Amino acid sequence: MASSEGCHFTRDALTPLGADVYDRNIADCFSAHGTRSVMAGVRLQLEEDSGRSIIQPMHAPTGTGSARHSDSQVAAAGFLFVVFIYLAWICVWLLERWLETRCAWINTHAAQSLYWLGMKILVWVLPGLYVIRYSGSSFRQTVGLDRPGLALGWGFGIGLGLALISVIVKTVTHQKLLSTPISWSLFSAVIVAPVTEEIAFRGAVLPALKTRVSFFAANLITALLFTAAHFPGWYFRHSLLAHLRSPIGGALSVFLLGFVFGWVAHKSKGIAGSTLVHMISNLSYS
């Protein structure tokens, strides 16, 4: 019943008397084209001239210009992206240390911020956008621009909750509520880091892993990978062991926050909500 252009049925199959036959033909079409057709959905087209109906599997979203990649390929792309981040980020830190001994300008706050902004775009954002496109999604879908209410609701709701926890912890431990002065460092922590990290991990890696495992497992793995992505920075700042041992503000906190960011992205149907939570969290803990 299937062909290279889809599954063709007569118009009679669409009448009440032919409903059972129609259902069986749809099942045969799904069986012929594989389970990915069922997951991706089908497009029903009526050909008025010939009086036929076509059930055509949607292997690729409109406008991608290429066939949809398999779940295994998408998951592998996400995994390779994370490996690339780890290796490239170590090289970025080595380059920064080398520049410090050769160029005096790199030691200014403005130069440091521009350097890390550029490197995050090159290492985290651009490859992440490629993985998003490779998976068959679009940047608009990934961000969740079609659901601004969900992003604002979940973003501000969870973000303010995390901010309240931060205020309580800092009050109990007698810390300043905002210990980082307004500077390029604060801009990087509150704007650059949340945007670039959410595109990479909740925008590219998490959806890629979800093609092979459940959301909970994918979010757990993504949170672990997100935490490990901080290791090079902690190592080169000579604070890796301190972050691993510290229950508050260390690796454990980053892991838990990463899990929350993933959960918010899932509930709000995009990374706009998780980015907002990430921004509020970084601001409150700065």
List keywords for this structure.
4 strands; four-stranded antiparallel sheet; alpha+beta; single chain; disordered N terminus
Provide an overview of this structure.
The structure is a single chain. The chain has helices spanning 19-33, 35-40, 71-102, 109-134, 139-143, 148-172, 184-210, 215-228, 231-236, 240-245, 251-267, 271-284, and strands at residues 2-3, 6-10, 42-47, 52-57. By secondary structure, the chain is of the alpha+beta class. The chain has two domains: 2-57, no CATH class; 71-284, no CATH class. α3 runs antiparallel to α4, α7 packs antiparallel against α8 (215-228) and α7 (184-210) runs antiparallel to α12 (271-284). The protein is globular, with a radius of gyration of 24 Å.
Spatial sequence of strands, sheet with the most strands: 1-2-4-3
Give the rounded overall mean pLDDT. 80
Shape from CA axes? Answer: globular
First-last Cα distance: 62 Å
Sequence stretches where pLDDT stays below 50 over 5 or more residues: 1-6, 8-23, 30-66
Query: What structural category do the secondary elements indicate?
Result: alpha+beta
How many distinct helices? 12
What is Rg? 24 Å
The arrangement of helices and strands along the chain is EEHHEEHHHHHHHHHH
Strand count, sense and barrel status of the largest sheet are: 4 strands, antiparallel
Task: Please give the number of β-strands.
Answer: 4
The amount of helix comes to 55-70%
What is the number of independent domains? 2
Beta fraction: 5-15%
